[in-house]
Amino acid sequence: MAPSLTGRTALVTGSSRGIGRAVAQRLAAEGATVVVTARSRGVSESVRSGRKAAVPGSLDETVSLIEEAGGRAVAIPADLEDEQARDQLVDRAVDSVGGIDILVNNAGFADYSLVEEMETATFDRTVDHYLRVPFALSRAAIPHMRKQGAGWIVNIGSVTGLAPIRPFREYNKVSGDVIYGSMKAAVHRFTQGLAAEVVDANIAVNAVGPSTAIMTPGAASLIPDGYETEPVEYLAETVLAMCTLPAAERTGHVAFSLHYPWSQNLPVMTLDGRTELPRREPPSWANPNVLPAGL
């Protein structure tokens, strides 16, 4: 069977490591030419509460992994906190690979803090990453997608964007994820509203998030000890599923990486697309507010 994305181009933000890298690899394995972007080509720094720390992963590594698997990727460094860089990114990607069929808004920033202790700068930066950046990049990509008659936008959501389980768990009392979760809830609503605005232009807009959590270099310090995480391949496969059908057939979903493949009997492949992984049922303790089909 021919790869499902042959001839298509994709832009994946925050793809030097973690979820973004995995998504870029999976799309490339299906034939897409992928533009990968992060703040710099080399190893970048994570900044939380004014403290900098080097985090493993780079754009050059992502490009190498994709090319070694037989795919094509182009690295375009861009600091999405810089307005000029942000506003130019889509056009730079289009100039580099000839178009944009798929936009995956993955880049993010998480600095958990209780509301009464959070600095305004942290609040503002969280809002920028999870609402302003997807807005700006989607706004820039839509005219290109309209012109070519189709497009797919995928925003990375989160179960923290759903209502907490009642009675409240200890995690919700102490984790400090309220502002992060509020912005992810905004991402979900942005996804559903934008889907309605562009469905008649054959542009699909969907959101995909982990059903539990994924142990990435950037998230490691935020995941409690002993918390059961999930392999990133299930999320990457769910993102791929949101990039393969016309908008009239699949748009406006807020899907989760274990729930969606399980409910739809969707085969999940390794990131190189060569090996099918075992079916993985969502755990019984997952947030009950998840809709299995993502509708």
From TrEMBL:
Entry-linked Pfam families: adh_short
Subcellular location as annotated = Secreted, Cell wall
The record's section on InterPro entries has: NAD(P)-bd_dom_sf, SDR, SDR_fam
Keyword Ribonucleoprotein listed? The answer is no
Establish whether keyword Secreted is in the entry. yes
* Alphabetical UniProt keywords: Cell wall, Secreted
Reactions listed under catalytic activity: a (3R)-hydroxyacyl-[ACP] + NADP(+) = a 3-oxoacyl-[ACP] + NADPH + H(+)
- PANTHER family attached to this UniProt entry: 3-OXOACYL-(ACYL-CARRIER-PROTEIN) REDUCTASE, 3-OXOACYL-[ACYL-CARRIER-PROTEIN] REDUCTASE FABG
Q: Which family does it belong to?
A: Belongs to the short-chain dehydrogenases/reductases (SDR) family.
Annotated protein name in UniProt: 3-oxoacyl-[acyl-carrier-protein] reductase MabA
